[in-house]
Amino acid sequence: MIVAGLTGGIASGKSTVSGFFSDAGARIIDADKIARAVVRQGTPAYDEICSFFGRAVLQPDGRIDRERLGDIIFSDLEKKARLNAIVHPRVLEQSAQMVDHIAAKAPDAVVILDVPLLLEAGMEKDLAEVIVVYVPEPLQLQRLMQRDGIGEKAAMARIRSQMPIEEKRKRATIVIDNSGEIKNTKRSALVVFERLKKKAASVAQ
Q1: What is the Cα–Cα distance from 154 to 60, expressed in whole angstroms?
Q2: Strand, coil or helix: what is 133?
Q3: CB atoms within 10 A of CB 129
Q4: Residue 27 and residue 110 in contact, taking contact as beta carbons nearer than 8 Å
Q5: Other residues' Cβ atoms within 10 Å of the Cβ of residue 11
Q6: In this structure, how many other beta carbons lie within 10 angstroms of the beta carbon of residue 165?
Q7: Which helix (DSSP H) or strand (DSSP E) does residue 7 occupy?
Q8: Beta strand pairing status for 2-8 and 27-30?
Q9: pTM to 2 decimals?
Q10: Pairing mode of beta strands 110-114, 129-134
Q11: Spatial distance between the Cα atoms of 56 and 72, rounded to a whole number of angstroms
Q12: What is the pLDDT of residues 67-76, one digit of tens each?
């Protein structure tokens, strides 16, 4: 088994590439899904978020309003750091448990750790590969504005809240360029998956 990290900038197409890997047979550990689970009502993380941010970040039914919380942390690095301190350790713990479970059942598996802030959180250590889905920043900006229906200023604030895409590209061991046609992105993803699959098989022997 090998574990590779998958990341990229906001609106770079990371989720699309993750889908290609999943369809090809990779085991996906989705950090966003885990992050949603660890902040559900009744969890310690939920209580900590309510205590720090107040009930203004809750929806009428009591669930955390992710959009509202996102707006707050995008413009306040101190609050962003506090949220990360609440959520990230729990995501790491659950991710590690899932990796151990897969290793016990499928020793030749290709595991993809799908994490938007993989490099920002320092989660790339001990990974077999760090895969970055890349698009140039101007295209990233355009796609984000179209996807979320927001203006340039709001979109740039979200982009600037992450590590620059060019820096992520430098720190990658594998880059999948998603600036062209989607069929080309898929082809690149499948080539990468076959490479990972061969590595996983050799490790399992």
Answers
A1: 25
A2: strand
A3: 18
A4: yes
A5: 23
A6: 22
A7: strand 2-8
A8: unpaired
A9: 0.90
A10: unpaired
A11: 11
A12: 899 888 877 8
